[in-house]
Design goal:
304 residues, alpha/beta, D-Maltodextrin-Binding Protein, domain 2, 3 domains, 11 strands, disordered N terminus, 10 helices, 23% strand, 9-stranded mixed beta sheet, rod-shaped, Arc Repressor Mutant, subunit A
Length: 304
Amino acid sequence: MDASSPDLETGELRSFVTLAEQRHFGRAAELLNVSQPALSKRLQKLEEKVGGPLFLRGYREVRLTEPGRVLLERAKALLRGADQALEASRSATKGEAGRIRVGFGVASITDLLPEVLRRFRKSHPKVQVEMRDMSSSAQRQALQRDEIDLGFVRMPITDPELEGVPILHERLVAALGPGMTWRDKAGLASLADQPIIVACSRSISASYYDHVVALCRTAGFTPRIVTETNELFSLLQLVRAGIGAALVPSAAAVMRVPGVRFKEVGLPEAAWDIALVWKKGLEPNLIVEAFAKVARQVYAARSR
């Protein structure tokens, strides 16, 4: 559009549509809560912008001209769009609509997150939720770069730009395939001679990889890692096939892979905490606060 072209104003379009529907200045002015002279002035301005008459004015009613009929449908669409935009903006201001980007890892997606998402979508149906599978370190970086709004991150949180609340207590357990020996008295040391599968490489999740190695060393051996996979269900299938044993989040048990047993390792070092983390901001993000509230409610209900 040329910079010198006149702009259409919402008030003028609304007055035009109302008069076109009512076909009577008095009724249209009453519905718009304006005087008839004010209504006539609005329409005159609109006709000047169009370059010709939009109505044929009779004694008892008005009728649309051909330019008026052309403008009517387009004016209705513009007004619907304006109303929808205003309503969407109002909903976003109240934290009822918008978008939230959430990072997650293995432990959160298999246990806590599905229930959180179900409840949040029920209470906030207008909010678009984008999920991103990421390691804790990748989530921290994404939060700092404003690429996600929330993350389920391993504690501790050391970055001063981030804040959060503990949301999930997890622990590593041993996953064993058919025929693998486990001695309760020996605990994790039972796997000293077994090949070990890890859920991801150290380059993807150093916190998980280092946790597995450190836990095995606490039990008195260095793990012989034979393969890595970036998907927990695939890892359990490898365990089932006898490729090796694994140390996985306890929440992996809900996948119920046939032939795979889970054993507590009996070491306090197996445990860790996950926090729901977001970037500190000058203004509160109502959608982030609402999601965090739902997550805390789900966690509290499961901790009873």
